[in-house]
Structure formats: C-alpha cells, structure tokens
Write the structure tokens for this entry.
Amino acid sequence: YWRGLLLGWQFGPYELVVPGDVDEIPDCEYQNDIGLTKVTFGEEDHWPPVRVGSRAFAGCSNISEIVINRDLAMSGDEVFLGCDALTKIVYGVNYPSVRGYAFRECKNLSDIYVKASSFYFPMSDIAAITSRRFINLTIVGDSKKILSTGITLPFSVKLILGEGIEEIASFQFSSCQGLKEITLPSTLRTIGKYAFAYHSLASINLPEGLMTIDDDAFGSCARLESVTIPSTLSRLGFTVFRGVEVEKISIAPSNHCYQIEDGVLYGLNDGVKRRIVLASRNLPSDYEIPATIQTI
C-alpha cells in the first residue's frame, strides 16, 4: 500500500505540500503515482531537514515542478527516477544533499531557479543526476549580491540573473566552461574580480546602469568576440580583458570615460589616456605608436 498511489487514483491530479512537521518520506512512498503533478517541500526555510527515501517519487510521470523551501536529506537513491514530465526545480534554500542519481532519467529537466540569498549551488551535481545537456539557470534576487564559493558548469547553461541583483562577487562564475549565454539585469552595478574569467562566452552585453567592472573580470576568455560598454560604466579595470583578443568592443556614444582610437580601447582620466586592450583584431600589420604615449 502506497499512500501516494492510492490518493492519485482516487482523486486524480493533485499537488503535494510536505508540511514542516513531517521529517521523513519513506522509501517508495509515492512511487508510480500518476496523479501527482507538483511537490513542494515546506512553506518556510526554518524547518529541520526532511529525509527522503529511495525512489520516494520514482515513476511519478506527471510531476512537472518541484519547489524546495526547506533542506532535504536525500538519503536514498533515485528519489525522482524517471519523472519524465519534470521540467522545473525551484530552490528557496541552500542546495540540498543529493546522492544516488536523484533525478536520473528526468529527460526534460530544463529550468532551475535559485534565490540569490541561498546561492551555494554545485551545478556539477545536477550534471551527475540528469542526462540533460542544456539547462536554463535563473538566479532570482531577494538579495542584492550573488556571493558564494563559485560554481562549476560542466554542461551547457544559459544563465539569467533576475532583476534586483546589484553585484556579482569576485570569482563567482570563474572557469564556467559550460556558460554559453548570459542575461544581466538592469539593476546590476558591479562585477567583481575574475567574476567571468576563463569562461567560453562569445559575447556579452553589459546593461545600462552598470558602473564598475573590476580587474580580470573577463580574463582569459579565449572565445570572447564582442563586448558592448554602456554609457554608465565609469570604472573598468585595466586588466579586465587580460589574455583576451576581443574581435570588437563598442562604446555607448554618451560614455565619456572611454574611447576607441586606432583600434585600441583607452580609459580617460582627467584628459590622460591609458590603454586597456585592443578593441579590434583588424589592425594594420604596421602600427605606429602615437607621440602622446609616455609609458609602455
């Protein structure tokens, strides 16, 4: 007798909310429940972890969304095995303990939402538990700053940073080779050191409102081809593109802190120009150093 299976057959489609006073879901508790369409773990994040047993929701072929508002201890294996309709996971708390290929054979899992305030999210675990090779990762902000030890993206990811986020901490997305696309919010003001270093992005549009990009933020991004600098940007680290040959850099016309001259991006400080990076690969083979250059 499985409680979930019985409820599914008796009442048809339904959503399950696991209340805070439940501390365990036994092995196979809802296995093969075709009526279950959504699972929400707790309404608040102050409840203690709930233990989820092996294959507790395996074969629930109509679950399309899982919301996690409290810590989970997925002590069993293959908790959500074969949930074919699952497309979305929402994390409202720190990433739970996952083991034993919890989301194995969830072929359509495509969207993961994470709150910035709880952002410690080892994406390598998701790569291990789902066969999907492209994930939309959306970070929504009830916090103004994304701060963690950084994440690893071992598969292709489209990253969307939600409105309200103002700062990306140093090293946040460094070495994310799977990062293919990124959308930055209009509220973003600061990008920290090495925040996007060593990634594989081909282009990035920096939003209006962005004011500071620290040193090496895009260092060693070998595939970076184009960058657009907004009018509001007033501080750009001089090693921000260290080791990068950018195909094209463009500047908003109303930005008076930077200029491109003869294919070189310069920063302007009280009328003094300082070279930052080549703004185009299409330079002549013979290049004459301007007479105004004082230091190399």
In short: Confidence is low (pLDDT under 50) at residues 1-8. DSSP finds two helices and 22 strands in the chain. The two ends are 78 Å apart (CA to CA).
